[in-house]
Amino acid sequence: MTLKNNKKSGFTVPKNYFETFDMDFISEQNLKQTFKKTGFKTPDTYFEQFEIRIPKTVPSITLRSLNKKTTFYISGIAASLVLLLMFSWPSENRENITAEAIENYLIYEEIQGDEFANFLTSNELDDLSPSSISASEIETYIFENASLEYLLIN
Amino acid sequence: MQNEATLLNQLKSDDTKELAFKTLVELYKERLYWHIRKIVISHDDSDDVLQNTFIKIFRNIHNFKGDSKLFTWMYRIATNEAITFLNSKAKRLQISDETLQQLTLGNLKADVFFEGDEIQLKLQKAIAQLPKKQQLVFNMRYFDAIKYKDMSEILETSEGALKASYHIAVKKIKLYLSND
Predict the structure, then answer these.
(1) Percentage of residues in chain B with pLDDT exceeding 90?
(2) What domains, with CATH codes, occur in chain B?
(3) pLDDT by residue (tens digit) across A9-45?
(4) Is A151 near chain B, with CB under 8 Å?
(5) For B22, B36, B170, B174, which has the most beta carbons within 10 A of its beta carbon?
């Protein structure tokens, strides 16, 4: 591609971009010469004495798990909320709202578990049968589903 | 240094797991510590996060599928642990992440484990004014010279975006330092 073609493309670069292009690299090197270290240090013999204390046993904790019936209720409530939001939205905007946008709204607007619980009757809440999920299962779930982007915005 | 594949096999076998894990800790404790330290700043917090990082590595090594390098997988865990730690600390103190970072930097001068002079303090302040992800990219590239390809696996971001992010970070830091 020639310079002439570039001119025709309509793209422009900041003033003195090409004149200072090499300088960017040089000044980064200058920066590195001035700021070589972070200044952080550790206690003496920290790394020599460092060892990992892995807990031998993981205590299991009892949580209420969602059985199939409850999952069905909650899915139903979520679907109802989606429909409610879709039909209560002004009609001129409705067609622009995707299911994904509503899902994101429900995720990021921090709708609490007890708000969902308000949609359940006491009988339905009683159907939430207690069972045991080990802490390691919970940890594995969080570990496998952690996203840096999500952590950075929270 | 032993082959990564051999070490990985030993880590996944019950008979050799503990010994192989000790080797892994020896190999990576310093690199992971300094990576974490640049994110959380305080030594005591870094020690906690490093402990948690290695515990997670130990417990989840059987889930490592080899889709990435072992060290990038560990860096990703360390990064997530450090960010989670800061988020929790800010929530516990009921302050924003930015306020927490300003508080931590404010204490840095009196920190017995900070031996930097005014210049290094100024650099830390310059880094702190960057968005969180740019801070990560800048620290990993500038101080640790981590390759963009590896950084891409650690931060789950394209190489192009990381290069642009680093370039912008360097410009902002130079501008901050020249104005300060």
Answers:
(1) 68
(2) 1-115 (1.10.1740.10), 116-180 (1.10.10.10)
(3) 777 877 877 766 665 665 677 777 777 788 899 999 9
(4) yes
(5) B36
